[in-house]
Amino acid sequence: MARAIMLQGTGSDVGKTVLVAGLCRLAANRGLAVRPFKPQNMSNNAAVADDGGEIGRAQWLQSLAARTPSSVHMNPVLLKPQSDNGSQIIVQGRVFGQAKGRDYQRLKPQLLGAVLESFEKVAAGTDLVIVEGAGSPAEINLRPGDIANMGFATRAGVPVVLVGDIDRGGVIASLVGTHAILDEGDRAMIAGYIINKFRGDISLFDDGISAIEGFTGWPCFGVVPWLPGAGRLPAEDSVVLERLARGGAGALKIAVPVLPRIANFDDLDPLRTEPDVELVFVRSGERIPADASLVVLPGSKSTISDLADFRAAGWDRDLQAHVRRGGRVIGICGGYQMLGRTVHDPLGREGGTLETPGLGLLDVETEMASEKTVRNSQARSTEYDTPLAGYQIHLGITRGPDCDRPSAIIDGAPDGALSADGRIMGTYLHGLFGSDAYRARLLQSFGLSAERRNYRESVDRALDEVASGLQRHLDPRWLAGLLG
């Protein structure tokens, strides 16, 4: 069995995903065969693994960092929230079912076998597996039947490194408090801890390290500062959208309504890196800016519910006004479905509403299908005759007169739709803006003299920067033991 270490957090969003990615790249740069693993993930940012099926987008990024093909076994349980208390459950890449929170707690013990099976497959033929926990082991109310944190670590015998986020404050209390409330068996799994997201003079925290060791006996494996490269990596959770900069005074303003069930919003990351683009995330209670030249409707885990919220926010009126002013609109996946006349859900896959009117900007209709389309795809833009590469994850078939003007040819078949004037476009292809030639032509169509940047290379450079930062700031003796 390969060596393995598990990073768990004192809370959500403490930076575990980036640390795992950085450690994967650091190990890969040293010639080790390394793979990431996350037993359970909750995210609507999904990717299509190289062996088919859905995994969390973060595990796809971590596999890129590890320079290894992605696999559904790297994230055997993926929860995709569809409502405030219910999620679609993906097990080893395939739809397993749906459950509300309390029902899922009862279901978890049945999924442990799949988690352990996937871990064995990931570990086979590998030097090192770096495991990411979910949430926090301090959520002891969820400990019975746990498969995401200590339940997995104790069953698989994987030592744990606890990660604390100093930027949010209270890091000493969060680490000491975690030590205090874990039972003896779980506490024994923790080998040490890492302080993450430090700003300023790291030596000022020396007394904090001494205090934590005095209370817990745990060694500190490093104090990691804010790493600039981390900000250029795709984010995993929609909570990050609350902190994303709204952009500078870019020559082109692009507005993105933030839907309650927004999915695969990392589609927008390539646009966020363009210096002449001001990407504005529009929250509930805000108006779509009147001076936006382009509005992008992103993916959605629940098109019908998000359409209702879109209207409740008044964004339907804003969008109509935007189009009357000559503005352009791009809808991706669920956003594409919203742009049509009607969305039908005869099987009730998204809930109790079987039919709802769309925004009426494209002459198409969508019917939710019984089977989900999940695949990586090669495509070509019909607008700009440029190559595209991305993936499809959608539950629906869209037809109508505007489909006679497809926006792309995907895997040899027409996809999407264009309005007669070419200002409204929809597609099922995620990753559209990550295609460098397409992105450059899109920006040029708005009058920008955009140079063609290689977005994938920029992500790869950011991963190397994160790895270098970890090498500088983590305990060299601990790293030698992990990577030796």
Automatic annotation (TrEMBL):
The active site is at C333, H430. Residues 253-437 form the CobB/CobQ-like glutamine amidotransferase domain. Gene3D superfamilies: 3.40.50.880, P-loop containing nucleotide triphosphate hydrolases. GO terms for biological process: cobalamin biosynthetic process. One of its GO terms (molecular function) is ligase activity. Residues 5-237 form the CobQ/CobB/MinD/ParA nucleotide binding domain. Pathway: Cofactor biosynthesis; adenosylcobalamin biosynthesis. InterPro entries: Class_I_gatase-like, CobQ/CobB/MinD/ParA_Nub-bd_dom, CobQ_GATase1, CobQ_N, CobQ_synth, GATase_3, P-loop_NTPase. Keywords: Cobalamin biosynthesis, Glutamine amidotransferase, Ligase. Belongs to the CobB/CobQ family. CobQ subfamily. Catalyzes amidations at positions B, D, E, and G on adenosylcobyrinic A,C-diamide. NH(2) groups are provided by glutamine, and one molecule of ATP is hydrogenolyzed for each amidation. This is Cobyric acid synthase. It comes from Rhizobium leguminosarum. The lineage of its organism: Bacteria, Pseudomonadati, Pseudomonadota, Alphaproteobacteria, Hyphomicrobiales.
